[in-house]
Design brief:
CATH topology of the largest domain: Aminoglycoside 3'-phosphotransferase, Chain: A, domain 2
Mean pLDDT: 92
CATH architecture of the largest domain: Alpha-Beta Complex
Strand order of the largest sheet: 5-4-1-6-11-8-12
Strand content: 15-25%
Shape: globular
Number of strands: 29
Helix content: 25-40%
Radius of gyration: 26 Å
Structural class: alpha+beta
CATH class of the largest domain: Alpha Beta
Distance between the termini: 62 Å
Number of helices: 17
Low-confidence stretches: none
């Protein structure tokens, strides 16, 4: 059985698939909020691989940050190759560095969820109608590969095409044959495979679950196919109409969302995908709306090195959107404020039972990153006092209700923003709520939420002291600073926003049972923000 994988990510396909000019490696191209390398490593771990060698042209800060925070069982090694090397040389370098008799060889823009650790030599394929784009196969009656035709000039209507997943039983022979090729980088893997198959029968296996991310159309198709369903939700697409349908067993939640889209003033509907149909009748609720294949603001924040000037413009657009929503008013509800900012955090904190989390929530004081903080046990009761004395509001406005980066679709080239997954409720169902909640949601994405849910953080504890690190890039630090400036320019108190933001993190702890480390990071970050917000307000 194969336990080592060599991932070839030294290509430059990102220039064809990314919506903006961005200097990120293929391995870090995001597919539904996770980089390709994350999907690969998680699948290799699921299939009990032990090592993965990532072949790249050069290391990159975004890749280095990701691997720094990779805590899976698969051990990852980066192999750098010169820019002048072709794919054959990259494969050879990776296999040499692996040093194992057999290995899995895989293209870096391919995601495969078929069994990949089997014995012998096996190459995965799918029958494709657009065969001219692929390396096609000739198969004999036994299902063995009888020849290769790389990007045939006169392809048949449909043909079996390699998908970029190759199981090799004799890596030494592959290396020997590759090194016998004449100098130059014009050779393809199929040139080596043709020689290799003369002594090693190659079994062709049809792939059932393959996603190609190497060209714009297949990348878009892969993003749709890999769209992650949440606990209560399922998604389907109508590619003819260009719509997406969400179905949910949580009927009340989706009913609130449908009502938000339906009742939004006509002038503001431009900020969200058009609602086609929605129903909360029957066993489950459903919502159909226009599908926009834009990246989320979270993906742009985490994976793209956008120029800070682009971010300044995008944040300006967001601020303008919030202002336009603010042209529609309703009387404030003090019970709703009390429920959202004081009762909910206290009730959610009380739901937490795990001992490591209780130690944080029950502490009078704790130390985070060498800073002594008041624990939520002390600050929680002060939330209600601060709400009654400092956080009162006389007017609500239209809000989205969950305005975090993952719920904002963005076309940065054209500065277009589209809001998805509105909450449709602030204490009670409806369009209206506290605008500070919007800014707190935005800030919590940049403060750490997006990093936490994507495992881009490190967490350590020793003798009751905690260390939580996110390792922001210079661009991300600039975005955080610009967002705080936007909050101040909107006339908001940064301390009030921090306090609300901290209460959000505390409230989210029981909702993220998928990971104790996620919950711990949220508890610590929430504790710090609540303490800082209260201190800034004089409590």
């Amino acid at each position: 059985m194969k336990n080592t994988a060599v991932l070839l990510a030294a290509g430059t396909s990102h220039s064809r698939v990314l919506p903006v000019s961005s200097d990120i490696p293929d391995a870090m191209i995001p597919v539904n909020s996770k980089p390709i390398i994350h999907h690969m490593l998680c699948e290799l771990e699921r299939q009990r691989f032990e090592r993965a060698l990532l072949v790249v042209r050069r290391s990159h800060p975004s890749l280095e940050r990701y691997l720094r925070f990779w805590h899976g069982r698969v051990q990852v090694q980066v192999v750098e190759v010169p820019h002048s090397r072709g794919i054959v040389e990259s494969a050879t370098a990776g296999l040499q560095a692996a040093g194992t008799p057999e290995a899995l060889l895989m293209l870096g823009d391919t995601l495969c969820f078929d069994p990949m650790g089997g014995e012998g030599d096996f190459f995965y394929y799918q029958v494709r109608e657009d065969a001219a784009r692929w390396c096609t196969l000739k198969l004999d009656s036994k299902g063995l590969i009888a020849g290769f035709d790389d990007k045939p000039a006169h392809p048949p209507p449909a043909a079996p095409a390699l998908i970029g997943v190759y199981g090799l039983s004799d890596t030494a022979e592959f290396i020997r044959l590759a090194q016998q090729l004449p100098a130059g980088n014009g050779f393809q893997l199929s040139d080596v495979f043709e020689r290799y198959r003369q002594t090693h029968p190659l079994r062709a296996v049809e792939s059932k679950t393959w996603y190609d991310c190497g060209s714009p159309d297949t990348y878009a198709e892969s993003r749709r196919g890999l769209l992650t369903s949440r606990v209560f939700n399922r998604f389907s697409f109508n590619t003819d109409l260009g719509t997406i349908t969400k179905r949910s067993r949580n009927k009340a939640k989706l009913a609130d969302e449908i009502a938000w889209y339906s009742n939004l003033p006509t002038r503001l509907q431009v900020f969200s995908p058009r609602l086609i149909a929605g129903s909360a009748e029957g066993a489950e609720a459903s919502l159909e709306q226009e599908y926009y294949g834009y990246n989320t603001l979270s993906e742009l924040f985490l994976f793209y090195e956008l120029d800070p000037f682009v971010w300044r413009s995008l944040l300006g657009r967001l601020a303008a959107m919030v202002r336009l929503f603010g042209e529609y008013h309703a009387p404030a509800s003090q019970p709703a404020l009390l429920d959202m900012y004081a009762k909910k955090p206290a009730e959610r904190a009380a739901q937490v039972k795990e001992a490591p989390l209780r130690r944080i929530l029950d502490a009078e004081r704790l130390t985070l990153n060498s800073q002594s903080l008041r624990g939520f046990k002390r600050t929680g009761p002060l939330l209600r006092q601060a709400l009654e004395e400092k956080l009162r509001s006389s007017s609500f406005q239209i809000i989205h209700g969950d305005l975090c980066f993952p719920n904002i679709l963005c076309d940065p080239n054209n500065q277009i923003l589209k809001l998805i997954d509105p909450r449709g409720r602030f204490g009670q169902a409806g369009l209206y709520g506290d605008v500070r909640y919007e800014w707190a949601k935005l800030r919590h994405s940049a403060s750490g939420y997006d990093f936490i849910i994507n495992d881009f953080f490190s967490l350590k504890s020793e003798a009751g002291a905690y260390a939580l690190e996110f390792a922001y890039s210079p661009v991300q630090e600039a975005v955080r600073s610009m967002l705080d400036s936007s909050i101040s320019q909107a006339g908001m108190s940064l301390d009030e926003i921090k306090l609300i933001e901290g209460s959000l993190f505390i409230s989210m702890i029981p909702l993220h049972e998928e990971s104790l480390s996620h919950q711990t990071a949220m508890a610590l970050l929430g504790t710090r923000l609540v303490d800082e917000g209260l201190a800034g307000l004089g409590y």
